[in-house]
Design a protein that fits this description.
The complex is a heterodimer of chains A (116) and B (221). With 116 residues, chain A is mainly α. Chain A is 73% helix and 0% strand. Chain B is of the alpha/beta class and 221 residues long. In chain B, 42% of the residues lie in helices and 23% in strands. In chain B, strand 6 and strand 7 form a beta hairpin. In chain B, helix 4 crosses helix 10. The N and C termini of chain B lie far apart (47 Å). The chains are: A mainly alpha (116), B alpha/beta (221).
Chain lengths: 116, 221
């Protein structure tokens, strides 16, 4: 019986190590909506990708996971295109706050926003 | 006794499946531990296949495994727009952009280059698969050196496997006709990126040098 237990535990450890579904960030349906939007850019696919980004940010908290790098940035770009400057600026700032590595290109994107 | 034997055999199979003459991450990618990149910029893939979608599938699924491996990944749609303005529309032209430019503009530590060598959907009577061959290389924007590379062929099974021949035939026919390639691209990227030493945001950052499992020939091509 003991051997069986050891075996089961090691199987679990093995499966955990080889194919863990445990992610550090919450991704929702990011890849799918981005793929649909890049393949067939339309008002509709753009809106559903935007909705997906908003949902990822909302749901990450309740799932106790992080918002992945680039999500706030990508949503900020869409808000900027839509002329929602203040929300774009806030989202860019959030990206830099979460990930200091983003600072330089956030600065670049903000400069572009001001030039508009 | 019988159960014990079965367990031993399965355990051996499981363990040998994971150990095919391998080296450690530190041995395979010493530059990665020296350079310690934090941020990765993904450039468009070079697509050598006839599958027009391959580059797009790659671009929309690569951020996840890289971020989960602990790296900051620059927004891929934004990088694409930036490159387009610079006159770069496909992966082939990226090599004309000096690596330091990415350091200057984005403050990116490393650039990920990918060549998709094949993307084939195969059909068999009782099954099917998608076979993807790709070469990944991460280069430092500081030293211009190669930090990590991996060249692999991944076979993703698309057939039904209920054990019932008729049911499998039908499900294979259905699933290969409307294959959703996004999860396949996800799997391919995930499996390849698994060989990359983890970055700053991963809890095992700096501790995976002794991890085994890197197949030498795939890392040294």
């Amino acid at each position: 019986m003991k051997l069986v237990e050891i075996f089961l535990i090691s199987m679990l450890v093995f499966l955990w190590g080889c194919g863990s579904a445990n992610t550090m960030y919450h991704w929702g349906g990011y890849s799918d909506s981005l793929y649909t939007y890049s393949k067939e850019p339309s008002a509709e696919s753009r809106a559903s990708h935007k909705a997906e980004l908003v949902e990822i940010i909302d749901e990450a908290k309740s799932k106790k996971k992080g918002v992945p790098p680039g999500i706030h940035f990508e949503l900020a770009m869409i808000e900027a295109e839509d002329g929602n400057r203040s929300s774009a600026i806030a989202l860019f700032a959030e990206e830099s706050r979460l990930f200091p590595e983003a600072e330089k290109y956030v600065g670049l994107a903000l400069k572009e926003l001001e030039a508009k | 006794m019988m159960l014990r034997n079965i367990i031993t055999i399965i355990a051996i199979l499981v363990l040998t499946g994971c150990q095919v003459a391998t080296i450690t991450k530190q041995e395979a990618y010493p530059n990665m531990y020296k350079d310690k990149p934090v941020s990765i910029l993904v450039v468009p893939a070079i697509n050598q296949t006839t599958a027009a979608d391959a580059a797009e599938l790659y671009a929309t699924t690569i951020a996840k495994p890289l971020a989960e491996a602990g790296y900051y990944v620059f927004s891929i749609p934004f990088v694409d727009k930036f490159l387009q303005r610079e006159g770069v529309v496909d992966g082939e032209q990226v090599s004309n952009v000096p690596l330091d430019k990415f350091k200057d503009v984005f403050d990116a530590d490393a650039i990920l280059f990918v060549t998709i060598k094949s993307w084939d959907t195969n059909y068999f009577v009782t099954g099917g698969n998608v076979t993807v061959a790709a070469k990944f290389e991460l280069k430092s924007t500081v030293t211009q050196e190669s930090l990590w590379k991996y060249d692999d062929i991944i076979i993703h099974n698309t057939s039904g496997n209920s054990g019932n021949l008729i049911a499998d035939l039908i499900s294979t026919a259905i699933s290969t006709a409307i294959v959703d390639y996004v999860p396949i691209a996800n799997t391919v990227n995930q499996r390849i990126v698994a060989s990359m030493p983890v970055g700053k945001y991963h809890k095992r950052h700096g501790q995976d040098g002794k991890d085994k499992g890197i197949i030498r020939s795939k890392a040294n091509n």
